[in-house]
Each structure stands twice: as structure tokens, then as C-alpha cells.
Task: structure prediction
Amino acid sequence: MGNVLDHSLFMQDSKKFMGLSHAVMQFNCLYNGSNIIQDDIFSILVNYARQNQKVLDIFRFPTKDDDFCALTCVQKGRIFVYINSWIPLSNQIFAAAHELYHIWCFIEEKDGSILKKGSFLSAAAMDEEVTSREDKEANAFAGLLLVPANALHEQMQIYGIPRDDQSLEDIIRLMAIFSVPYKAILLRLYEEKYMNVDSVRKFLAVEKDMLKKEIGYMLDADRWQRRTPEILQMGSLKQLIENNIEFGLLTDSRAKDDNEIFRHILQRYGRDRG
Result:
């Protein structure tokens, strides 16, 4: 299953990793508190932008391409985020947290270049094949945000997961608790010194079919690995159309055309909401 360690920010730049760790702690204090985030990440994205006087639209609909995870761009000061609802839900959550890093850099004026030209997240960039510096940092940010050190320690105590020599069942339990992909939880355990290199490599050597089978035995873990093509979230598109009609900003023919286009979009992705 590859090696998630070698290309991680933790291994390549420990100083930058520690800086991100402190930044994530501050971010959590301001925008999340002590909650385990899971799929609240989508609300946190919107709230973070709103609290910083930015408009952010989230689009989630299925594109049947496992390599296409997310896309973020800025147009006329408005932030647009697309998350592919075809990929497993835990991957969607991690992708949203990854994109949040680019948005955070843009809003905090640390580096807005990524969003100005558009951020495309592939499955490879979310995995061990990541090559760009920005994506390494975004992956580290996502892992730290979704699996905070204090929460990881607390949950391991609550569920009786040992500080070392964890079983595959323990790893899957932690995946379920934090709703993150397999490699993400392995990396966080390594970063927090609950796992050594040999243990990480042992778990990375587990065959995908075996992992899928073991996850299937644990229902609360399996639900985070399911695809969700039924999710169709079109940002504020419908609201904008209705507001334009309500305030008389569109002719009757244009309003009808806009509603028809919106209906066709929903039909294309499997749901006609009228």
C-alpha cells in the first residue's frame, strides 16, 4: 500500500510541521473548540470564511473519477470549493480539510497564489505520491486538524488502545472515531510517537482487500468508507436564482431559463428537485 512516511512534511521538515501544529491548535480554539470534527468540516469551512468576511460556496456532487477529489478557486473575491461526493466519505472529509489549508493561507494572507490559479486535489496528492510543497503542508494541516493530539490520546485511553503494538482492529477503530483514511491515522500515530517506522510499514503492507474486509466487520467504521453519490450540494446557486427572481433582477424568460438549467444539473447527477 505504499509508503506514506517518506513524502510527509513531518519527515521532511519537522520545524514547519511544528509550526503548523501550533497554528492548527489556534485554529481549533477559534473555529471548532474541542469537538472531533468528522463531517462537520464542511460547516467549519463555511463558518471560517464567514467569520473572516469572505463568501465561500461548497459544491458536492458525484464525479465518477476516484482520482478527482477536490477543487478550490477564487473568482471575484468569492471562494468556490468542490468536493467529489463519489469518493469515500472519509476521503471527502480529508480532502475538505486539505483544501481548508489553502483557503486559510489565502485568507490569512500567508500565500494566496494557490487559490488564485486554482487548487486541484488528486488522490495521489492526498496520498504518498504528493510532490508539491503546498500539498505536503496541506496534508499535514488536515491530519493535525482532524486528529488533534489531545483527542487522539484521550480516545486511545477510552477505548483501551495501547500506546504501542496496536492491532489492525485498533487502527480501524481510530479511523472510525476520527473519520479519516487509513494512511492518515497511521501517519498521525507515528507523528505522536505511538507507532514506530517498522509498525507503520507493517500496517502499510496490509492488502487493500484484507483491510476492506476488516473494516466491513465494524459498522461505525464502514459507514465512513462508503461512497455518497446521493449528496448533491450546489452552494448558494438555488438561493441566488430565487433571490434574483424575488427582487425582480431577471426577466421572466431568464428566470425560467436559469431554473431549467438548475433542474438539468440536478437531473444529470441523479436527483430532480423540481
About this structure: The chain has a mean pLDDT of 88. The first helix runs from residue 9 to 12.
